[in-house]
Predict the structure.
Amino acid sequence: MKKPEDNIVTNISIDLKKMRIRIYKSTLHYLGDPKYIQLLVNPKTQMLALRVVETDTPLLQAHRVDIKNISPDDSYEIYSGSFITKLCEITDCIDHNCTYKLTGKVIPTEKIAVFSLKSIKIIEL
């Protein structure tokens, strides 16, 4: 039987103008305050995932997370033109000058957060 905390609703934002993905501190906390995370995207299912990984290797392309140095607005920011470009290729209903929010869920037992690209909503023009 699943516990309520097994599916925690969360958000991330994607700023296309700055090529930035913003992951909120609460999401990282629900993932167990990881040292590294990996961004994954599945074009077929239009899903984006944040996965906790233990170490970084060139094949994993993980991002080091330093919880102590989270930005003043309580978020961890990843700047990646290539990742944002890939998201734009598979999501045809977005404006390149806007910021969007994706809603998803954290599954702490799996150390992963998943977001449907179909949940995309504009939050800033």
